[in-house]
């Protein structure tokens, strides 16, 4: 009887290997190109749904900061739409207010509303500086460069600033901060005896300091050659230029300068902040990832620069890299590749033992095809290569090949019954469309709730369902539109390039096949018949097992924790002293 191929996309693709191979190549090449362009980061970048307000108030005590700034700011922002909770800290010289937003609130709109509310506050102390309102974000720190040596703070700071400027000029990184030292300041210590001698007061000095260090636009001047921008640029950035500030002058030309009545020092703020590395004073250069920069690229560039910088530093100064987060990403990527290779080998061996060598090869191709193809979807949903998405790929390695195995096994069973190759591939794939699709759909439904987890946790974990669903969809595409065409054109001849390998593989395959058939028609058949004859007892045993498992969990015999405690790679020590 002549076989008439049925209609449908699955049947057409199985009978047209050129189209199937073209689809496979497009997915592979597109996935490779997308993988090279996908953003890389250690952890996903996201906003924290928290608006922070900082108001500097130089010279004020915590009590003055609270009465003058904190209470007024809390009252202003508490009634803004979208605000869930307000926390504040009043400390010396500054007020810090943290505004937590409601789940589902629009962060940009809430930020603008909070800015408007802060601008309406008109009761701030005269000496308080302008408030700064920002939406909090997690900065992606990658690596720390440490300069240490028995030198002064100023020398270490100058070396760190020079290194920072060189790194930015080279393009090694875009965002680099120098930390580990108190903030710089210009200290002006006024001598009261000299003030009285010149007939001045502290208020006179403060007024001249305010007026004598300004940078303001002053409009434009029209000239015959065009318009000239006018700007007052008199900002004094060091103690020497500040010492030349004129406090008072006379008609005869005599002048009293700030250096005449005060001692001026370029120094650091007086606080307890200090950094030490291997027992020596140190300064930290924190390097962050922004935009399309990759953690591994930044870390490699910083380490190369550290090797070069070590030859140019003064004697006694060392440069070291510390807390390299790119190693976490590299280790997770190595784990993924190692598991992928191991998975490919295991799948190939198992399929070669139970089915056929050539069939095992084509089924194994589905693993890299599905994962690489998923990279075509990642940019549309903002998924990057990070610790969470790589973890999701590790999960999919164990389930992605199931669809192809089911389709291949059904096709192979028909081939063993003498059905021609093309007919077996078409019928084997078409029969599995419904069960395999529903199997994938149930897995997708299992991971889909993670898409709707609110808050910061949801922003972190949403990478998992997107990756899993993308890989599963590509696996479904490969199983029904690529694999059947390969199976349809895979012959049974033991000749050709693979002939010797196939003949060798047939020896263990025949051994395993015979034992498997004995098991199926022997113990397994008897067990299934026993379960069917005692079906009510089997159902009751399943219900009892479920209730026992539920009782074990609810009774606390199996502890539950949302985030398990794991060992860290860093040892931290904190000491709390009595007041």
List the helices and strands and how they pair.
Layout: H1 9-15, H2 17-37, E1 47-56, H3 62-77, E2 83-91, E3 94-101, H4 107-119, E4 132-137, E5 140-148, H5 153-170, E6 175-179, E7 184-190, H6 192-198, H7 202-211, E8 215-223, E9 226-233, H8 239-243, E10 246-249, E11 255-257, H9 258-261, E12 262-268, E13 276-277, E14 280-289, H10 295-309, E15 318-322, H11 326-354, H12 357-374, H13 387-397, H14 402-416, H15 421-447, H16 455-461, H17 463-481, H18 483-488, H19 499-533, H20 535-554
Antiparallel strand pairs: 1-3, 1-4, 2-3, 5-14, 5-15, 6-14, 7-12, 8-9, 10-11, 13-14
Helix pairs in contact: 1-15, 2-12, 11-12, 11-13, 12-17, 13-17, 14-15, 15-17, 19-20
Protein architecture, described:
The protein has 579 residues and is an alpha+beta fold. Helices cover 52% and strands 18% of the residues. It is built from 20 helices and 15 strands. It has helices at 9-15, 17-37, 62-77, 107-119, 153-170, 192-198, 202-211, 239-243, 258-261, 295-309, 326-354, 357-374, 387-397, 402-416, 421-447, 455-461, 463-481, 483-488, 499-533, 535-554; strands spanning 47-56, 83-91, 94-101, 132-137, 140-148, 175-179, 184-190, 215-223, 226-233, 246-249, 255-257, 262-268, 276-277, 280-289, 318-322. The strands form 5 sheets. Strands 5, 6, 13, 14 and 15 form a 5-stranded antiparallel beta sheet that branches. Strands 2-3-1-4 form a 4-stranded antiparallel beta sheet. It starts with 8 loop residues before the first helix and ends in a 25-residue tail after the last helix.
């Amino acid at each position: 009887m002549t076989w008439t191929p049925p209609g449908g996309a699955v049947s057409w693709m199985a009978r047209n290997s050129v189209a199937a191979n073209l689809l496979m190549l497009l997915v592979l090449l597109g996935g490779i190109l997308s993988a090279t362009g996908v953003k890389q980061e250690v952890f996903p970048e996201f906003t924290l749904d928290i608006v922070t307000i900082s108001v500097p108030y130089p010279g004020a005590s915590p009590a003055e900061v609270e009465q003058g700034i904190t209470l007024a700011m809390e009252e202003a922002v508490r009634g803004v739409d979208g605000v869930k909770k307000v926390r504040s800290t009043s400390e010396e010289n500054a007020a810090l207010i943290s505004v937590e937003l409601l789940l589902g609130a629009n962060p940009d709109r809430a930020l603008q509303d909070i800015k408007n509310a802060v601008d309406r506050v008109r009761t701030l102390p005269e000496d308080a500086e302008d408030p700064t309102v920002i939406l909090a974000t997690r900065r992606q720190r990658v690596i720390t460069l440490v300069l240490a040596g028995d030198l002064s703070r100023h020398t270490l700071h100058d070396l760190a600033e020079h290194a920072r400027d060189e790194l930015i000029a080279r393009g090694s990184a875009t965002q680099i901060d120098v930390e580990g030292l108190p903030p710089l300041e210009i200290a002006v210590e006024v001598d009261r005896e000299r003030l009285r001698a010149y007939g001045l007061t502290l208020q006179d000095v403060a007024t001249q300091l305010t007026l004598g260090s300004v940078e303001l636009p002053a409009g434009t001047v029209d000239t015959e050659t065009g318009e000239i921008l006018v700007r007052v640029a008199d900002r004094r950035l060091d103690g020497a230029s500040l010492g030349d500030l004129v406090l008072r002058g006379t008609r005869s030309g005599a002048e009293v300068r700030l250096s005449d009545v005060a001692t001026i020092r370029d120094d650091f703020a007086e606080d307890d902040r200090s950094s030490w590395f291997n027992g020596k004073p140190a300064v930290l250069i924190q390097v962050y990832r922004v935009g399309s920069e990759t953690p591994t690229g930044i870390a490699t560039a910083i380490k190369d620069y550290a090797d070069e910088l070590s030859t140019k530093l003064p004697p006694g100064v060392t440069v070291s890299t510390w807390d390299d987060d790119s190693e976490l990403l590299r280790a997770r990527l190595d784990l993924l590749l190692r598991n992928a290779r191991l998975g490919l080998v295991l799948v190939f061996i198992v399929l070669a033992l139970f089915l056929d060598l050539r069939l095992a090869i084509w089924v194994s191709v589905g693993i890299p095809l599905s994962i690489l193809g998923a990279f075509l979807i990642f940019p549309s949903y903002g998924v990057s290569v990070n610790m969470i998405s790589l973890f999701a790929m590790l999960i999919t390695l164990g389930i992605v090949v199931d669809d192809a195995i089911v389709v291949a096994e059904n096709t192979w069973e028909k081939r063993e019954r003498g059905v021609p190759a093309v007919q077996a591939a078409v019928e084997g794939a078409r029969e599995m469309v419904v069960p395999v699709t529903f199997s994938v759909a149930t897995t997708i439904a299992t991971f889909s709730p993670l898409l709707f987890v609110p808050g910061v946790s949801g922003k972190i974990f949403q990478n998992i369902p997107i990756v899993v669903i993308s890989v599963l969809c590509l696996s479904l595409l490969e199983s029904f539109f690529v694999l059947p065409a390969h199976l349809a054109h895979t012959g049974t001849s033991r000749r050709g390039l693979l002939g010797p390998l196939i003949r060798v593989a047939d020896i263990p395959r025949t051994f395993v096949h015979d034992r498997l058939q004995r098991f199926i028609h022997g113990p397994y058949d008897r067990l299934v018949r026993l379960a069917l004859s005692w079906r009510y007892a089997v159902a009751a045993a399943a219900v009892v097992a479920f209730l026992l498992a539920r009782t074990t969990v609810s009774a606390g015999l199996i502890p539950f924790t949302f985030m398990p405690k794991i060992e860290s790679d860093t040892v931290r020590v904190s000491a709390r002293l009595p007041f």
